[in-house]
Write a structure and sequence with these properties.
rod-shaped, 51% helix, mainly alpha, 83 residues, 0% strand
Length: 83
C-alpha cells in the first residue's frame, strides 16, 4: 500500500458575513427632521413645566407622532424601494 502524504496545511480564510441591505438609508433630510422632532419635544417639555395646557400637548404630540416617525420613514428622491 502507498502511504499518503499529509496535505499541506492551508491557512483558513476568515469569511466576513455578507452585508444585507435592509432598505434603510439615512440622509441629511432625515437628520433635519429628527432635529426638529427633538426641538419640538424640548419646547413641549419646557412649556409643560411652565404650566401651558394647550401648547405643550400640541408640541409633544407633533414631536412624537409626526416628526419622529417622519424622520425614520422619509426617503429622498431617486432612492429605490429597497427591495
Amino acid at each position: 500500500m502507498r502511504e499518503r502524504k499529509p496535505a499541506a496545511a492551508r491557512p483558513r480564510s476568515v469569511r466576513k458575513p455578507a452585508e444585507v441591505d435592509l432598505g434603510f438609508s439615512w440622509g441629511i433630510a432625515n437628520s433635519i427632521l429628527l432635529g426638529l422632532a427633538l426641538a419640538a419635544l424640548v419646547a413641549g417639555y419646557v412649556a409643560l413645566s411652565k404650566g401651558s395646557t394647550t401648547l405643550a400637548p400640541v408640541l409633544l404630540v407633533t414631536g412624537y407622532c409626526v416628526l419622529m416617525p417622519a424622520s425614520l420613514l422619509y426617503r429622498g428622491r431617486g432612492q429605490g424601494s429597497g427591495e
